[in-house]
Amino acid sequence: MPSEAALSLSRACKASRIIDCSECEVAFLCVRRVQQKEGMKINFCTLSRGARRSTLTIFLLLVAGMFCLTGQANAEALPSAAEMWKMVQAQQKQIDELKAQLNQVNQKTEAVTEAVEAQGSDTVASSTSAGWWNNTQLGGYGELHYHGGDKDRIDFHRFVLMVNHQFSEDLRLYSELELEHALAGEGKPGEVELEQAYVQYDVADQHKLNAGLFLLPVGMLNERHEPATFFGVDRNPIETNIIPTTWWEAGIGATGELPLDLRYDLAFHSGLKTTTTEGNAFKIRNGRQKVAEASAKAGAVTGRLRWNGVPGVDLAISTQYQSDVAQDSLEEDIEGVLLAGHADIRKGPVGLRALYAHWDLSGDAPKAVGRDEQAGWFVEPAYYLESEVGQFGIFARYNQYDNEAGDSGDSEYRQVDLGLNYWPHQNVVLKADVALVDAPDGKADDEILNLGVGFNY
Fold it and tell me: Other CB atoms closer than 10 Å to residue 341's CB: what's the count?
């Protein structure tokens, strides 16, 4: 059967009306294809000249001959179908082998990566868990005051550093160190004080035990008195003269939660030691020993019950009993009982705070100077304004207190505070207020401009 190339040549000759070599009347190259088993042979015949055929006929014959040669060459170069299948199978085998090798390399790489990451994380964990800093937190606060009026002075009142540490999931340390009035030492106005240093242990999910030096759970400011948390440059006079904020003692205590949204605090601790003579006899604030080689002949117990069942409402009552506030310095025991209660309410932009505190001291000695009863209270409405540059708060506070309430004479102080707080940040506050002091007979009234800046972190 003739090949496709031979048929193409035949069709080209017929298109030129050339049947075979004997019919040629021009000199041209006749390509005769002879097909044999071993391939093809090409015979060339040179015919006589004097052709009357056109050049186009010769050109077509040459193109047909070239096509025949090219087709034969390609036919000889291409492998057969069987050979092609063998080649495809060999290539697929090589591809499968390369894929297997690549998978092995990937698995080894992943194993090495995981080992390195595990070793690195173990190294980091071991290095950080061993460091105390990993479970230690720093905090603190400070406040600068200017007081006009008769005082007319400026004072960096407090700078406090807090260091807390988590020993374990259930055991932690709280501590607080304070520098008052910028300078401390002999002949200096200030002092360095350790106000807190106690450990706390979780005995249950909602109950904790405290042991060490801690702030007593009384009033609104004694436990939380950072400058940004209250109105006015100075703390209110009731939580200065009746509840001697800041007031800390040494002992053991418990705190926790009860049903009906109640919280409790109970502490057994060291107590006051008031002076018994001169002008400050039996004044509560002057009785703080600050746990500095303090007399421990008569201890005290303090308890508090708080309710926070409604958001924005904090109600609490506190009481303390001490068997002898004079610490056995008199022949008679001077029992002391404190009763205090407060309300702290915030609803939207409106705030209201109120507090009452009352001491009752037994014995003839306190009664003789009118200090068998000491009491005070205040009420403080406030309004908060939000702005793009921070929060503003305006307040008015009426205060009334008497450290000689057991005396029939005039010994009561009345004070009105009007002022403004500005918080550019929730932990930074600028304060300005005016204190109008109405003093008892024999004491001087005063009008005081107070300016302050405070921070906590």
Answer: 18
Token couple for 176:
């607080």
Distance, in Å, from the CA atom of 363 to the CA atom of 333, rounded to the nearest integer, reads: 7
The mean pLDDT value for 427-442 works out to 96
List phi, psi (to 5°) of 241: -100, -30
The Cα–Cα gap between 72 and 5 comes to: 7
Q: pTM for the complete prediction?
A: 0.72
Structure tokens of 227? 């400058």
Q: For the chain, which residues make up each domain, given as ranges?
A: 4-77, 84-130, 138-456
Class in CATH terms, 138-456: mainly beta
Q: Please, are residues 176 and 194 in contact by the beta-carbon 8 Å criterion?
A: yes
| Residue 273 near residue 290 (C-beta atoms within 8 A) | no
Lowest mean pLDDT among 93-102, 189-198, 320-329: 93-102
Nearest Cα neighbor of 230 from 146, 316, 346, 401 is 346
- 62: Cα separation from own chain's centroid: 90
Average of per-residue pLDDT across 126-151: 84
How much is the pLDDT for 38?
A: 39
